[in-house]
């Protein structure tokens, strides 16, 4: 059974929707800038979707009623685009499910409750805490999109959305569903910014993945979803097919990757095995590429181990969007299937000098390149590493 990628939806700091996103990338327009969503003492650049919650709610067509977290609103917009792109009506005859990933959940609303409560324990609106749980955003997205079938939430740090896509494919292969909306959504909040700052892995400048001068990551927010379907259920030509996927764990450290990239290598090798491909079949790799000294060195060694001296064109798109945490695998899966469909090599912004591993990413935007297989890497805290492979028909 082949799993078709029938639709795609994306929201990030460089645009709402596939069209705006590609326009920004073609123009080499990054979404990295100053924090404006909330007051903070940290002067670090981030990738914000520069619209307040009220504007996001208006754009989605929902106003008033129950509170909706920023995470839910971002996910609603991306999932709606993906379903419309695929031409799928969840109320139709297909068994449609939703597998959504997040790490932040509704924390942006919870923070507003505690801001008032800590000042006066007689104040604070408890309804803001209702959306805190990670599953709340998934249920809000399912309700908004009219998805009444199987629904579940994954939270495996920065590999979450990639794991959601992998699970979606397995649900279809197992005969449980005909169609799955799979991906992830995460919003910026104070807790995340403070947490990553305490780990000392935020760059005070726009990030520079795979560059010798790299000094850390830039946090971002957004959502990305793909619509996976049985090939025979597609009503239009798909972007391509999810041919390979694998998850592995190097069990090395709570927040760091192993020096030799064991988990990354196992995930990439496993995805190739599932797809029945050899390394030289891959035409482009959308790397995890956070810009931290540890991640990029580890991933580079894993790539060298897998591909040898014939490393395919690769780049990180995080200098455009920031690192969107649980949403990263969904956003980058969308970018990967678009790359496959249109033959795109994305530029790795701000690259100037190779690091010790000597690897040079793509630095120019190219379109019309013949691509048959595209790999997307998403590696999370705790060593949770996931690789997806998308292939042409």
Give keywords.
393 residues; two-stranded antiparallel ribbon; eleven-stranded mixed β-sheet; Peroxisomal Thiolase, Chain A, domain 1; globular; alpha/beta; 13 strands
Task: Give an overview of the whole structure.
With 393 residues, this protein is an alpha/beta fold. The protein has one domain: Peroxisomal Thiolase, Chain A, domain 1. 33% of the residues lie in helices and 19% in strands. The chain is built from eleven helices and 13 strands. The protein has helices spanning 18-26, 53-60, 70-86, 107-119, 134-145, 160-173, 190-198, 262-275, 293-307, 318-321, 328-342; strands at residues 3-12, 15-16, 32-33, 46-47, 96-101, 151-154, 179-186, 222-230, 240-249, 284-286, 314-315, 373-379, 384-391. Strands 1, 2, 5, 6, 7, 8, 9, 10, 11, 12 and 13 form an eleven-stranded mixed beta sheet that branches. The protein has a two-stranded antiparallel ribbon with strand order 3-4. The longest helix has 17 residues, at 70-86. The chain starts with a strand and ends with a strand.
């Amino acid at each position: 059974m082949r799993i078709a990628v029938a639709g795609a939806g994306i929201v990030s700091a460089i645009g709402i929707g596939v069209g705006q996103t590609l326009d920004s990338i073609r123009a080499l327009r990054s979404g990295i800038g100053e924090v404006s969503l909330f007051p903070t003492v940290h002067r670090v650049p981030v990738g914000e979707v520069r619209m307040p919650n009220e504007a996001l709610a208006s754009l989605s067509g929902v106003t008033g009623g129950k509170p909706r977290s920023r995470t839910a609103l971002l996910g609603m917009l991306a999932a709606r685009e993906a379903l419309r792109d695929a031409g799928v009506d969840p109320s139709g005859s297909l068994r449609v499910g939703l597998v959504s990933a997040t790490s932040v959940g509704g924390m942006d609303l919870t923070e507003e409750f505690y801001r008032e409560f800590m000042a006066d324990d007689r104040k604070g609106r408890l309804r803001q805490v209702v959306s805190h749980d990670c599953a709340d955003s998934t249920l809000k997205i399912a309700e908004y999109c009219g998805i009444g079938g199987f629904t579940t939430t994954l939270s495996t740090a920065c590999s979450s959305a990639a794991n959601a896509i992998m699970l979606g494919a397995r649900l279809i292969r197992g005969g449980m569903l005909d169609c799955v909306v799979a991906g992830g959504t995460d919003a910026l909040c104070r807790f995340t910014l403070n947490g990553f700052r305490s780990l000392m892995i935020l760059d005070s400048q726009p990030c520079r993945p795979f560059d010798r001068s790299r000094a850390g990551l830039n946090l971002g927010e957004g959502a990305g979803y793909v619509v996976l379907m049985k090939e025979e259920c597609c009503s239009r030509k798909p972007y391509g097919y999810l041919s390979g996927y694998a998850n592995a764990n190097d069990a090395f450290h709570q927040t760091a990757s192993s020096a030799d990239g064991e988990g990354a290598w196992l995930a990439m090798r496993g995805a190739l095995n599932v797809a029945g491909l050899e390394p030289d079949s891959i035409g482009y790799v959308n790397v995890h590429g956070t810009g931290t000294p540890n991640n990029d060195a580890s991933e580079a060694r894993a790539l060298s181990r897998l591909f040898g001296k014939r490393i395919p064109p690769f780049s990180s798109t995080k200098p455009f969007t920031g690192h969107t945490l649980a949403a990263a695998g969904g956003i980058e899966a969308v970018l990967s299937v678009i790359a496959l469909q249109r033959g795109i090599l994305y530029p790795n912004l701000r690259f100037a000098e190779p690091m010790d591993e000597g690897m040079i990413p793509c630095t120019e935007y190219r379109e019309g390149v013949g691509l048959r297989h595209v790999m997307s890497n998403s590696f999370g805290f705790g060593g949770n590493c996931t690789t997806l492979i998308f292939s042409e028909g």
